[in-house]
Amino acid sequence: MSTGFFGNLTSIPFEGPDSRNPLAFRHYNPEEMVMGKRMEDHLRFAVAYWHSFTWPGGDPFGGQTFERPWFGDTMDKARLKADVAFEMFSLLKAPYFCFHDLDVRPEGDTFAESRKNLETIADHFETRMAETGVKLLWGTANLFSHRRFMAGASTNPDPDVFAYSAATVKACMDVTKRLKGENYVLWGGREGYETLLNTDMGRELDQMGRFLNLVVEYKHKIGFTGTILIEPKPQEPTKHQYDYDVATVYGFLKRYGLENEVRVNIEQGHAILAGHSFEHELATARALGIFGSIDMNRNDYQSGWDTDQFPNNVPEMALAYYQVLLAGGFTTGGTNFDAKLRRQSLDAEDLLIAHIGGMDCCARGLKAAAAMVEDKALSGPLDQRYAGWDKPQAQAMLKGPETLDSIAARVEADGIDPQPRSGRQEYLENIVNRYV
C-alpha cells in the first residue's frame, strides 16, 4: 500500500555505475553473485526504525527540525509510522529492519499499557511483514531515554529500575521471537557512570552480569533461536560505559560465563569513539570468536560525538567487509544502517537517497573485499610473514614440549641471532588501493 509520503515511487531500480539517477542503485544489485553468493545474502541490509522514523532532527544544541505526519504519541500515529516504514523498506528492497520498543509504540501510563501497545503494534508489523516479505534482523529495548534510566538500567542503584528493565527486555524478547527476529541486541547506553564519587563499580558490573545471564536463561526458556548481541560503545551518553569496546565486552563475558552465549554487534561510529578503527573492532571480534553483526554508519572526524552519518568511504568499507568475510560472513547478523539524516535534510527523498548511497558504498566495499580474498592479495603476504611458525621447532615452542630453559639453551648453542624483516606496510596499502 502507498501512504503517499514518497510520492508516486514504486521501487528503487538498479541502473548500474553510469546512472545519474539519484533514486537508483549504481552498485547494489541484490542478485549479483559475489564469491558464489547473492549480494543481498552477503550484506543482509536492515533499516533502523529509530533514526529513520523516530528521530526528530535534534542535536545537543537544538531541537526538532523534522516534521513528519506520524509524529505523536497515539496508536494511530504509530500505525501510520509503521505503514510509511514498510513502504520505504519495500522501495529500497531492504530485506530487514530493526527497532527499539520505544520507537514503535507510545509510552503508556503504566508498564502494562506500554507492553500492550508494543504487542498491538507487533500485530500490525506481522501484517506488513507478510505483505512485503521484509524480516526482522533484531529487536531491542530502549533502556536509556526515559528519566527512570538516568542512573542506568541493570546497573542502577535502585533495584526497582533493574526489575523494570528486566520486564521491558522480556516483553521485547517475546515480540522479537514472535516476529521471527534473528537476533536480540542489548546496548548499555547508561550502563556506566558519570563520576566514581557515587559509583560502586564492582557492584554494578555484578548487576549487569546477572542481568545478561537472566536474558540468556530466558532465551533458552522460550526457545528463541536467534543470537544475543551486545553493542560496544565507550562513552556518550555516560562518561564511561562498561561495554567500552569489543575486547572489554569479551572480558566481561568471560567473567560471567557468557562467552559462548553472546556475540557483539559492532558499530563503526562507536569504534572510532573508542579510539579504534572499524576493521580493528571487527578483527578483534573475529579473533575472539564473538563476531555477530554490524551497525553501519560513520562519524564526522571533526566532531567529538557520535554523529551517525551514512557511510560514504569505500576504502573503509572494503577493509571492514574484508574482516567480515574472513570471519565467515554473517550468519544471523547483517548490515544495519544505524545512521540518520543531517538535521537540514528535510525531504522524504532525502531518506531514500541516504540509504541508496550507503547501500551502494557497502556494495562497492564488499566487491573489493571479495576480490582481495579470492586473489589472496593480503592473505598471501600474511602467510609468508608468519611462515616460520609452521616449522616443527616453532610449533614445539608454541605448544610444547619446549620450555623456557630448553629454548634459552638452543638459542645459545645454535648462535641464533634473528635479523629484522620488512613489514612492507606501504606495499600492502598500495595493494588495497588497487582494489578500491
From TrEMBL:
Active-site positions on this chain: 100, 103
Keywords of the record: Carbohydrate metabolism, Cytoplasm, Isomerase, Magnesium, Metal-binding, Xylose metabolism
**Cofactor or coenzyme needed:** Mg(2+)
Q: Which residues bind Mg(2+) 2?
A: 267, 270, 306, 308
SUPFAM superfamilies in UniProt: Xylose isomerase-like
Q: Which GO terms describe its molecular function?
A: magnesium ion binding; xylose isomerase activity
Q: Subunit notes for this chain?
A: Homotetramer.
Family membership: Belongs to the xylose isomerase family.
List the protein's name. Answer: Xylose isomerase
Q: Which organism is it from?
A: Hoeflea marina
Q: Gene name?
A: xylA
